[in-house]
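In response to the reviewer comment on reproducibility (Comment 2.3), we provide here a single inverse folding case reported in full, input and output, so that an independent group could reproduce the run without further information from us. The structure tokens appear first.
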């Protein structure tokens, strides 16, 4: 399959996908994109705005995984004194893919502090997933990691992701990962 992995980060969702697919990862931060490229050297990594890239290239792929920024949706937001508008990129992409994309797709985000504006297809671990295919909610033994309290070592071990020592913001990057087993489960469901 030709896969588009948007807002790729360090690729927690992609970790267990193997190398038999043609994967393009889009990440806006060049430092994070460089870490992704080190972890997955066979992937094509593009440093660009994922939202715009989706709009311009969606027809080129068989499967699209999108993980738009989540900080403005997170339940942690209610503990932060600075109030901000939620970033609606999440819902823009769901609606866009529902209307215009004919391949398989999934959009991932954290469970928000508000009732979702579009009902998710499934909730696995600590994430909502919207998709145009059935994602079985049968796997209950996904790694249970307290991302809010664990340090770099525990998160790195739990996700089996070894970041280069020079990587900045390692804890944040690891906390933002989708559990690799969840990523594999969803890709497996998409290929059925």
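Designed residues, in position order:
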């Amino acid at each position: 399959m030709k896969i588009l992995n948007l807002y790729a980060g360090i690729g927690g969702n992609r970790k267990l996908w193997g190398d038999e697919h043609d994967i393009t990862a889009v990440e806006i931060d060049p430092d994070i994109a460089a870490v992704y490229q080190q972890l997955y050297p066979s992937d094509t990594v593009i440093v660009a705005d994922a939202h715009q890239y989706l709009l311009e290239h969606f027809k080129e792929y068989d499967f699209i995984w999108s993980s738009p920024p989540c900080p403005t949706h997170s339940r942690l937001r209610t503990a932060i004194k600075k109030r901000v508008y939620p970033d609606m990129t999440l819902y823009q992409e769901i609606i866009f893919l529902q209307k215009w994309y004919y391949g398989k797709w999934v959009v991932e985000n954290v469970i928000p502090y508000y009732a979702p504006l579009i009902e998710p297809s499934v909730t696995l671990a600590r994430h909502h997933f919207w998709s145009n295919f059935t994602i079985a909610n049968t796997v209950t033994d996904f790694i249970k990691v307290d991302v809010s309290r664990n340090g770099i070592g525990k998160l790195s071990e739990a996700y089996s992701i070894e970041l280069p020592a020079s990587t900045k913001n390692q804890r944040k990057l690891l906390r933002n990962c989708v559990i690799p087993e969840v990523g594999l489960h969803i890709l497996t469901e998409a290929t059925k």
